[in-house]
């Protein structure tokens, strides 16, 4: 039941991950913006059934302990994360695995499930969106300045990154994700949703302050057989 913490070289970077359990069903936990396995999935690493599951939580490049490199947001950053995530699991010798993704990690999981269908067993996403609207951009700009964040949300991230990296990376994220809204349909991965063939569960928080509910409904509508 112990949790191992290690780094492995994938696609030219050293990715940090935590692993626990010895079940036959491998599961990768994908954190949200600025998140890491530890900050976003402490309870899951501790409490998921270790007989049923082998649980891996990763820090995407530039987040958590997967620094260096510093985090950047090129136009394909979600695709890059999806490839890193899948290649990490393959480097760890998992032939097939499920994805549990939240927020940005949910978007990454949707792309991975669509692009690597033979590798993905099941998919659970929450707080995810497949496009960015002008309304979303307005919401994102509301969190651009981290000094306005609540102490509860801010503290663990400041402890992990230091104030400067945290503040700078949050601003870069707002700019990076807002770029999708410049396309006519605001598309991130809408065209990939019909390619997702694995059993999919979409969860959404009614009070999610960052992701309006219409996003979850859109994803559900466009992934055949999803719940």
From TrEMBL:
<dbReference type="GO" id="GO:0017171">
    <property type="term" value="F:serine hydrolase activity"/>
</dbReference>
<dbReference type="InterPro" id="IPR000073">
    <property type="entry name" value="AB_hydrolase_1"/>
</dbReference>
<dbReference type="Pfam" id="PF00561">
    <property type="entry name" value="Abhydrolase_1"/>
</dbReference>
<protein>
    <submittedName>
        <fullName>BPHL hydrolase</fullName>
    </submittedName>
</protein>
<dbReference type="InterPro" id="IPR029058">
    <property type="entry name" value="AB_hydrolase_fold"/>
</dbReference>
<keyword id="KW-0378">Hydrolase</keyword>
<feature type="domain" description="AB hydrolase-1">
    <location>
        <begin position="26"/>
        <end position="139"/>
    </location>
</feature>
């Amino acid at each position: 039941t112990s949790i191992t913490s290690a780094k492995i070289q994938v696609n030219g970077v050293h990715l940090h991950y935590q692993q626990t359990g010895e079940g036959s069903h491998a599961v990768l936990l994908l954190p949200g913006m600025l998140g890491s396995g530890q900050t976003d999935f402490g309870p899951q690493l501790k409490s998921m059934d270790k007989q049923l599951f082998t649980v891996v939580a990763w820090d995407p490049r530039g987040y958590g302990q997967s620094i260096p490199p510093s985090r950047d947001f090129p136009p394909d950053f979600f695709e890059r994360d999806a490839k890193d995530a899948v290649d990490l699991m393959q480097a760890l010798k998992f032939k097939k695995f499920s994805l549990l993704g939240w927020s940005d990690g949910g978007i990454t999981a949707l792309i991975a499930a669509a692009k690597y269908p033979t590798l993905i067993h099941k998919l659970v996403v929450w707080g995810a969106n497949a496009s960015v609207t002008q309304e979303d951009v307005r919401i994102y700009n509301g969190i651009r300045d981290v000094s306005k964040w609540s102490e509860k949300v801010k503290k663990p991230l400041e402890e992990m990154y230091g104030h400067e990296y945290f503040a700078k990376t949050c601003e870069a994220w707002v700019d990076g994700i807002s770029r999708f809204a410049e396309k006519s349909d605001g598309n991130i991965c809408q065209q990939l949703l019909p390619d997702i063939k694995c059993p999919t569960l979409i969860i959404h928080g009614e009070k999610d302050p960052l992701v309006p509910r219409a996003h979850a409904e859109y994803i559900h509508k466009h992934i055949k057989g999803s719940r």
